[in-house]
């Protein structure tokens, strides 16, 4: 097992009827900016619950945060913060709202070009506004980590960044808030969680048995619970398990002491930025092809994954790997998500555009070994058709 340091300060309030506790988590003297998306929290009742809970607090609002939150739009929150002397942010929504709010927290007092916050990891900040979260769409794990992903409208950029100052002070996770999620958003969240786990698990062995078993338990839970929420969107037990899986998929615990990959995410971000696929869709396209191209480097872990997750025990090593990749693709497809770029109207002739973006972003040595250069990235993209 590799050396590691682990500290996660985020407090979790999990389960039914937890939203009203938000009042005790934010001091009365704080001036709050409530951030949210395009209004789904008003139709599902979450907005009213939050407003009732904070009836004795001073609240301002910033709404309309988009999926793949846009840098230019997020900057519009800064004048509101300065004018109203905001000193606490409350993100109510899914990963995009939380990620966007983390950027706002970092940018509120930043003196330089705010884009520097995004293009540097860790971000060059020395202060940030405190934030809390009410999660309504489990996927990114942003409710219990210090990372964020922000896009830019003026160019095809979608970049990740992070800083220890951006851990939420608390996050409220009520599975009932997810009952009204459309099937597509549910599928995207499951896929994002699944691939967060594989990015930390499908690398190479370092004797981290506990982390391996924790990762495998999340994958198995996703596979077992996913059909239940599609059969009954208000299955509380299944929704609760999926929500907790999403948080554990990227809250630091399964990724410490083991090599991490993140190439699937980096390659997927470029697809989303250039062609507009949902994040989950991009990941579902890339992972099977990345495993295929990197099968030799990831051999031991793919075989372990095939045996422990999909019960693949027969055939040669290459046949077992083929079956594991096929099973992974079939799982994504069972959620209603296509796993080929051609299914989204993208052609092989457009692959050079993605390679240009990788080069521009300096993403020329990806993967747990740093051996996915531009040539290998092109091979992975071409395998996505």
The fold-level CATH name of the largest domain is Dehydroquinate synthase-like, alpha domain
Content of β-strand: 5-15%
Rounded to the nearest angstrom, the radius of gyration is: 20 Å
Low-confidence stretches: none
CATH superfamily of the largest domain: Dehydroquinate synthase-like - alpha domain
Distance, first to last CA = 37 Å
The biggest beta sheet reads: 6 strands, parallel
- Helix fraction bin: 40-55%
Structural class assignment: alpha/beta
- Sum up the overall morphology in one term: globular
The CATH level-2 architecture of the largest domain is identified as: Up-down Bundle
Number of DSSP helical runs? 16
Secondary structure tally: strands: 8
SSE string, helices as H and strands as E: EHEHHEHHEHHEEEEHHHHHHHHH
Number of spatially distinct domains: 2
Mean pLDDT: 96
Highest CATH level, the class of the largest domain: Mainly Alpha
| Strand order in space, largest sheet | 1-8-5-4-2-3
Description:
This protein is an alpha/beta fold. It folds into 2 domains: 11-178, Rossmann fold, CATH 3.40.50.1970; 183-382, Dehydroquinate synthase-like, alpha domain (Up-down Bundle). It is 46% helix and 11% strand. The chain has 16 helices and 8 strands. Strands 1-8-5-4-2-3 form a 6-stranded parallel β-sheet. It has a two-stranded antiparallel ribbon with strand order 6-7. Strand 6 (147-152) and strand 7 form a beta hairpin. The protein is globular. The mean pLDDT is 96.
């Amino acid at each position: 097992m590799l050396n590691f340091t682990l500290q996660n300060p985020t407090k979790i309030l999990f389960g039914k009827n937890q939203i009203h506790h938000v009042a005790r988590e934010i001091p009365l003297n704080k001036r709050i900016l409530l951030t949210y998306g395009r209004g789904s929290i008003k139709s599902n009742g979450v907005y009213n619950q939050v407003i009732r809970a904070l009836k004795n607090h001073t609240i301002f609002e910033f709404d309309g945060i988009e999926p793949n939150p846009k840098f230019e739009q997020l900057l519009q929150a800064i004048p509101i913060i300065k004018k109203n002397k905001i000193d606490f942010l409350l993100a109510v929504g899914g990963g995009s709202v939380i990620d966007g709010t983390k950027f706002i927290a970092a940018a509120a007092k930043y003196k330089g070009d705010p884009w520097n916050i995004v293009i540097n990891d860790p971000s060059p900040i020395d202060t940030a506004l405190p934030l809390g979260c009410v999660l309504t769409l489990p996927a990114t794990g942003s409710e219990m980590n210090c990372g964020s992903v922000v896009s830019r409208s003026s160019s095809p950029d979608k970049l990740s960044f992070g800083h220890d100052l951006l851990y939420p002070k608390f996050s409220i996770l009520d599975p009932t808030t997810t009952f009204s999620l459309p099937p597509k958003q549910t599928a995207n969240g499951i896929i994002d969680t699944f691939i967060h786990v594989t990015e930390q698990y499908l690398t190479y062995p370092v004797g981290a048995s506990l982390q391996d078993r924790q990762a495998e338990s999340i994958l198995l839970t996703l596979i077992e619970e996913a059909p239940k929420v599609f059969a009954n969107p208000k299955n509380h037990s299944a929704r609760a398990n999926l929500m907790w899986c999403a948080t554990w998929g990227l809250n630091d615990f399964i990724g410490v002491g083991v090599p991490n990959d993140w190439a699937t995410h980096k390659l997927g971000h470029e697809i989303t930025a250039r062609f507009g696929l949902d994040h989950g869709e991009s990941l579902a396209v890339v992972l099977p092809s990345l495993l295929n191209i990197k099968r030799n480097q990831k051999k031991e872990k793919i075989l372990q994954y095939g045996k422990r997750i999909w019960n693949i025990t027969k055939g040669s090593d290459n046949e077992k790997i083929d079956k594991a990749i096929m099973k992974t693709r079939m799982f994504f497809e069972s959620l209603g998500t296509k796993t080929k770029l051609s299914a989204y109207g993208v052609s092989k002739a457009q692959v050079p555009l993605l390679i240009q973006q990788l080069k521009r972003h300096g993403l020329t040595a990806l993967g747990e070994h740093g051996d996915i250069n531009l040539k290998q990235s092109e091979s992975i993209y071409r395998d996505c058709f």
